[in-house]
Amino acid sequence: MAASIGIMDGAYFVGRGEILHWINATLQLSLAKVEEAASGAVQCQLLDMVHPGVVPMHKVNFDAKTEYDMIQNYKVLQDVFNKLRIGKNIEVNKLVKGRPLDNLEFLQWLKRYCDSVNGGIMNENYSPVERRSKGCKERGSKCSNKPSKSLQANRLPGVDSADGGPGVGKVCITFSEEHYIEQIQKLSEKIADLKVSVDSTEKERDFYFSKLRDIEILCQRPELEHLPMTKAVRKILYAADAKDSPLPEANDIITKSPSLFSSETE
């Protein structure tokens, strides 16, 4: 089951762009960043798609902006996990902070899970917009089909009309503002991508360092530290020169120790 996949599984190497394309195409949304899914509403609807009737969509708030409202969505998601017996830990405190890497990893896992259900075949009769609208009506709040904050930001104040209204005298200023806003958005996306890349690299570094540390501790056991194989491994672990490989010297240690294989020949 996808709930138990390891951190080095191929699911966690699916790119941010592919994840966003999958979400937008599946749910008919227009997310530009993975952290825009931090409210938990998207995750709830993805499960609603693969498990029709299990998710109480009337409890899902697509307009959640505060951490309190977001947490309510994750409570719904956790209840669904419990019903489906999905043993996946939801790190709500990290997700609601909107950190790109945390949200990307959770969405990567969720994509793997959704692909594992019914062989990844989507329900053609599922209407994501209708499900969101129905949920909003039942909840008695405004529907989430209104333009997102990011889309509203692209419409600058001061341009009231194109036929001589108050905005005509501000066309040049508005154009300049739009240009700078576009540049800021592009730079912000690049910064977010770099942050995801750095966080991913650091996590991978820590993963391999922990493995090397485990090997080092094993080599320090009194009954093993004098063995030729242990000496060869430590030769590689403690090599200071990055240019010259310590592998030949490690091989020599093993080769010059015939006693290593004496028990097998006997």
TrEMBL record:
InterPro entries in UniProt: CH_dom (IPR001715), CH_dom_sf (IPR036872), EB1_C (IPR004953), EB1_C_sf (IPR036133), MAPRE (IPR027328)
Coiled-coil portions: 177-204
Subcellular localization(s) per the UniProt record: Cytoplasm, Cytoskeleton, Phragmoplast; Cytoplasm, Cytoskeleton, Spindle pole
Coiled coil keyword on record: yes
Biased composition (Polar residues): 142-153
Molecular function terms, GO-annotated: microtubule binding
GO cellular component: cortical microtubule, transverse to long axis; microtubule organizing center; phragmoplast; spindle pole
Gene3D superfamilies xref list: 1.20.5.1430, Calponin-like domain
GO BP annotations, alphabetical order: cell division; microtubule bundle formation; thigmotropism
Principal location: cytoplasm
Matching Pfam families: CH, EB1
Domain (EB1 C-terminal) ranges: 176-246
Keywords: Cell cycle, Cell division, Coiled coil, Cytoplasm, Cytoskeleton, Microtubule, Mitosis
Top-level division of the source organism's lineage: Eukaryota
All copies of domain Calponin-homology (CH), residue ranges: 13-115
Sequence segments annotated as region (Disordered): 133-162
Recorded family membership: Belongs to the MAPRE family.
UniProt cross-references to PANTHER family, sorted A to Z: MICROTUBULE-ASSOCIATED PROTEIN RP/EB FAMILY MEMBER
Full protein name: Protein ATEB1 homolog 2
Source species taxonomy: Eukaryota, Viridiplantae, Streptophyta, Embryophyta, Tracheophyta
